[in-house]
Recover the amino acids of this structure.
């Protein structure tokens, strides 16, 4: 992202990672369901959002401190930075 007004984590994103599969990798392991999906921009894992019962992506952030996620929902084009609580559409 070439916007000097964005936080350093969002500025560091040069290419948005998205998953080819539309599943929460953790929910699948435990035969659970999810609401929406998010993809970690550090490691590429796709997990469920905070509206899902298990909130796997937020748990992933707290465990790994990977700062930026992208919506993995079709038609949505945005990024969220957890530590800076910053949102940007792309």
């Amino acid at each position: 992202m070439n916007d000097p007004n964005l936080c350093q984590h969002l500025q560091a994103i040069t290419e948005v990672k998205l998953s080819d599969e539309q599943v929460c990798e953790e929910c699948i392991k435990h035969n659970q369901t999810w609401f929406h999906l998010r993809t970690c921009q550090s490691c590429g894992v796709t997990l469920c959002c905070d509206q899902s019962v298990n909130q796997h992506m937020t748990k992933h952030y707290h465990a790994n401190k990977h700062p930026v996620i992208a919506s993995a929902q079709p038609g949505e084009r945005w990024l969220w930075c957890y530590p800076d609580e910053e949102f940007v559409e792309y």
In short: The two ends are 8 Å apart (CA to CA). The chain is about 20% helix and 20% strand. The mean pLDDT is 96. The longest strand covers residues 37-40.
